[in-house]
Amino acid sequence: MAVIDLEPTGGHEQRGMRPCVVISDPDVSSDQRFPPVCVAPLTGTPGQGLLYPELAPGKSGLARTSFALIDHLRSVDKRRVRRVFGELARHEVAAIDEELTAFLGLGGKGSWEHSS
Asked: Are 65 and 54 within 8 A, CB to CB?
């Protein structure tokens, strides 16, 4: 989890300084040869349908229930990271993994309909 400066943006991209789930593997993220990290911005507005796993406040460091915007995955330079905080519960990580698999088409034929 990290607060990321997402500006500048264009189109329907999430804007401003906002919490994000860092999707990149921690070993890759900590390697200086790879300056960007992959993130999914968070929102407090519940999403409709797939791709918006719910994240609970508490251990995550979030002040309120939030939703990961898997369809807004973004690669950002590490210099945009303003603060690292919190940790997700295993079931939240599993939900994000499941939605990433569907969104990126990694689950084989029919993965998009996995939880509809």
From this structure: yes
Dihedral angle over CA of 61, 63, 64, 67, nearest 10: -40
Give the fold, CATH level 3, of 2-113.
SH3 type barrels. (2.30.30)
Give the start-end residues of each E strand in 1-116: 2-5, 17-22, 36-43, 54-55, 66-68, 74-77, 81-84
Contacts of residue 83, defined as CB under 8 A and 6 or more positions apart, other chains included, come to: 2, 3
Question: Which tens digit of pLDDT belongs to each residue from 73-99?
Answer: 999 999 999 999 999 999 999 999 999
Q: Are 96 and 53 in contact (CB under 8 A)?
A: yes
Dump pLDDT digits (tens) for 8-36.
877 777 878 999 999 999 888 888 888 89
Q: Where in the chain are the domains?
A: 2-113
* Global confidence as pTM: 0.85
> What does the alpha-carbon distance between residue 93 and residue 14 come to, in Å, rounded to a whole number?
21
